[in-house]
Amino acid sequence: SYDLTQPPSVSVSPGQTAIITCSGDKLGTKFACWYRQKPGQSPVLVISQNTKRPSGIPERFSGSNSGDTATLTISGTQPMDEADYYCQTWDGSTGVFGGGTKLSVL
Amino acid sequence: QVQLVQSGSELKKPGASVKISCKASGYTFTSYPMNWVRQAPGQGLEWVGWLNTNTGNPTYAQAFTGRFVMSLDPSVSTAFLQINSLKAEDTAIYYCARIVMVGFDSWGQGTRVTVSA
C-alpha cells in the first residue's frame, strides 16, 4: 500500500511562514491535496491539484509538489490557522491520507 | 450551495449493523463521485472508499473490504454507508465527501458511531 508521511507537529510564531511537508514515493508524479481541520469541525480543502486554492481560501495558503515531497506553505500565519493539516493523494483509484500535522501558532 | 447532510449519531452493540446516510443538495448528485472517510477518536483521517454515483460501483480501501458496504439512491440524491458485524474499533466519526477533480471539496458534518456493549 502507498504511504504518506507528515511531521506530527509544526510550530510557528504569528506572522511567520509555516511549512508542512508530506512525503511519499514519487509523490511528485501524483496530485496532492491539503485539508485543514479545526477541533470539532469537518475537514476543509485548502489546496487541490498540488497548487490550486479553492474559492474562499486565503492567498497566504500555497502548495507545491516535486520529487517525493509535497509542501503546504502558509505565509504570514495567523492564530486562526492553528489546526490539524492532512495531505492526501490517489494511488490509482485508492485514496490515501497522511497522518496529519498539528500546526501550533505560538 | 453544495450541501452534504448526514444522519445523526448512532449507538450500537458489538455485532450489530448500522447504516449512515448522506443527502446531497445544490448540485447534480450523479455528476460527482462520493467518498467516505473515517476518523477514530483522537486519530487522523482514513479513506474508506468511493462510490461511482452514475453506476453505483464501489471501490474500497483494503482495510474496509468485507464488512463495509457503500450504496446510493439517486432518486433522493443520497449515499449510504452500512457497517456490518460492528466492532469496538469501528467507533469513529464517519464523513461523506464529494470529489471534484482529485480533491474532496465538500464534506458532510460527520456521523458519530459508537460501538459499546
- Tell me the helix content of chain B: under 10%
The helix content of chain A, as a percent range, equals under 10%
Mean pLDDT of chain A: 97
Number of helices of chain B: 0
Net shape of chain A = globular
Q: How would you state the average pLDDT of chain B, rounded?
A: 97
Instruction: Report the major sheet of chain A.
Output: 6 strands, mixed
Low-confidence stretches of chain A: none
Classification by helices and strands of chain A: mainly beta
Determine the number of helices of chain A (DSSP H or I, runs of at least 4 residues). Answer: 0
Number of strands of chain B: 11
Q: Compute the gyration radius of chain A: what is it?
A: 13 Å
How big a fraction of the residues of chain B is strand?
Answer: over 45%
Can you lay out the helices and strands and say which pair or pack?
The complex is a heterodimer of chains A (106) and B (117).
Chain A: E1 9-12, E2 18-23, E3 32-37, E4 44-47, E5 61-66, E6 69-74, E7 83-91, E8 94-97, E9 101-105
Parallel strand pairs in A: 1-9
Antiparallel strand pairs in A: 2-6, 3-4, 3-7, 5-6, 7-8, 7-9
Chain B: E1 3-6, E2 10-12, E3 18-25, E4 34-39, E5 45-51, E6 58-60, E7 68-73, E8 78-83, E9 92-100, E10 103-107, E11 111-115
Parallel strand pairs in B: 2-11
Antiparallel strand pairs in B: 1-3, 3-8, 4-5, 4-9, 5-6, 7-8, 9-10, 9-11
Explain what you see.
The complex is a heterodimer of chains A (106) and B (117). Chain A is an all-beta fold and 106 residues long. Chain A has strands at 9-12, 18-23, 32-37, 44-47, 61-66, 69-74, 83-91, 94-97, 101-105. In chain A, the strands form two sheets. In chain A, strands 1, 3, 4, 7, 8 and 9 form a six-stranded mixed beta sheet that branches. A three-stranded antiparallel beta sheet of chain A has the order 2-6-5, with no helix packed on it. Chain A is globular, with a radius of gyration of 13 Å. The model of chain A has no long low-confidence stretch (mean pLDDT 97). Helix content of chain B is 0%, strand content 53%. In chain B, the strands form two sheets. In chain B, strands 2, 4, 5, 6, 9, 10 and 11 form a seven-stranded mixed beta sheet that branches. In chain B, strands 1-3-8-7 form a four-stranded antiparallel beta sheet, with no helix packed on it. The N and C termini of chain B lie far apart (40 Å). The relative contact order of chain B is 0.32. The model of chain B has no long low-confidence stretch (mean pLDDT 97). Classes of the chains: A mainly beta (106), B mainly beta (117). The A-B interface holds A 1, 31, 33, 35, 37, 42-45, 48-49, 54, 84, 86, 88-90, 93-100 and B 35, 37, 44-47, 50, 59, 61-62, 95, 97, 100-105, 107-110.
